[in-house]
Amino acid sequence: MSDRIIQTACKQFSPEQVRNVAAKHAASTDQHGRLAQEVIDALISNGFARYFVPKAFAGLNASFTDLAAGLSTVATGCTSAAWCAAICAVVGRMAAYLPTASQQKIWQDGPDVVISASFRSTGKVVPSKGGWVLSGEWHFLSGIDYAEWALLCIEPVGDEQAARYAAVPASAYRILDNWDTLGMRGTGSKSIVLDDIFVPAEMSFLKKDLWAGQSAYAPGPRYQVSPIGADPQLFMACAHGAGLAALRFWGQAFQETPPVGELASVYARSAAELDAAQLLIERACQTTDIGAQPMALVARNGRDASLSADLVLSAVNRLFRLGGSNTHFAHNTLQRLWRDVQTLTSHIALRPDFNFAQYTRSNWPARDTDSMVPVANIAPAPLPAQAEIHRKFAVNEI
């Protein structure tokens, strides 16, 4: 069977089906550094690639809340499969920022198209009539082995405001097999190389529009949110699922007799941290589902993603530390989950130094008032559809 995706009919969004298939291949996925074709087919046929595709192209255009729950479910079977599912959905949403005619090129044969992305401009970008010529390497493209397109961050030298994402088909690049990591091995987040590939301007969109959550070509609240406030929660849903799997695996050693003493504390504390992380993830997704958010709320989502990363990491580290000698064998399931959580929670989108500083700046009281009301609440009046979430945010109800 070809590595490229075979278009399949998406009957429903069923994370449980993907989880069951992914769990069967989890050990070999970790060993071989890529998802099995059966896992990719399950991921596509169950709706992850089309999740945020605009309805005009038969996408689901579904909620962040349901997606996060689905990703956590898949991750209980295989963290790498859940991550690739998240990237399929996230990058599909990004592609909706392209001009409509360009969206048509990508989804002309249906919405179940795998698109990967590189979020830093690391190759050479040379202006050319009507577009740019791209050369060099772009890195960390999860699921690129199966992608039909790639969205690449491009940045003309000396003009950061002109940074864009450009869509290139799989035929335009070659893949470097250089993904050899501690964890998340099955994501296959490899590099690609382009050799003087022309990209027309209409196959791109401004990075600042994405970051501001302002798509001129895809209507609806799903495309009015910044990835800074939306995407980290989806990444953390994958880590949360891995944490749940680690807790379950750790507990299986006790069979029907519950742990006592220190080990009972290990179980209870780890379970509580995972519950707390889930609550933070769910709250952030619920607010994101409403659409455009004040900057202070975007920053709070980022803060909570970093905190939930700390919680999951703490829980899994504790389980691993008291998991027994067998956890140190490479084939051990708890070790694989521990490695996955170490790698996933180190993602730049979850870094506390950035997210905590952003939250503090956004929520610090204005200098010209004695009130302790967050800065976001003295912003211009919200749109009617957003009024309730702004009100609740102001009084700490969300």
Top-tier CATH class of the largest domain: Mainly Alpha
Structural domain count: 3
Order of helices and strands: HHHHHEEEEEEEEHHHHHHH
Point out poorly predicted stretches: 1-10, 367-398
In CATH terms, the superfamily of the largest domain is Butyryl-CoA Dehydrogenase, subunit A, domain 3
Question: Which topology of the largest domain does CATH recognise?
Answer: Butyryl-CoA Dehydrogenase, subunit A, domain 3
Give the integer mean of the pLDDT values.
90
Provide structural commentary:
This protein is α+β, with helices and mostly antiparallel strands and 398 residues long. The protein has 3 domains: 15-107, Orthogonal Bundle (Butyryl-Coa Dehydrogenase, subunit A, domain 1), CATH 1.10.540; 115-212, Butyryl-CoA Dehydrogenase, subunit A, domain 2 (Beta Barrel), CATH 2.40.110.10; 225-394, Butyryl-CoA Dehydrogenase, subunit A, domain 3. The protein is built from 12 helices and 8 strands. The chain has helices spanning 15-32, 37-45, 64-75, 79-95, 100-107, 207-212, 227-252, 262-288, 295-321, 333-344, 352-363, 387-394; strands at 115-118, 124-128, 131-141, 149-154, 164-169, 174-176, 190-200, 204-206. Strands 1-4-5-8 form a 4-stranded mixed sheet. A 4-stranded antiparallel sheet has the order 2-3-7-6, with no helix packed on it. A hairpin with a 2-residue loop joins strand 2 and strand 3 (131-141). Helix 7 runs parallel beside helix 9. The radius of gyration is 21 Å and the shape is globular. The model is unreliable at 1-10 and 367-398 (pLDDT under 50).
